[in-house]
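Entry 14. Ran structure prediction on the chain below.
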Amino acid sequence: TKDGEIIIKAQQFRSLEKNRADALERLGALIRGAVKQERKRRPTKPSRGAKEKRLEGKEKRGRVKAMRGKVSE
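Output, structure tokens:
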């Protein structure tokens, strides 16, 4: 809420005790999820094939652009 409170509503069961237990379990799961740290991504180098493919595309694009020049008669 705006006051910084967490409100969990539990009405799944007919019994108050079961609903309280369910609410506490959900609160625990919420807290465990908030505490868990995400693993940092380990940066990897591009493979040789990926580098070659990228350079090949750049060369092809360069050739296309070079053909756009003025035509001499």
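The two ends are 77 Å apart (CA to CA). Will compare against last week's run tomorrow.
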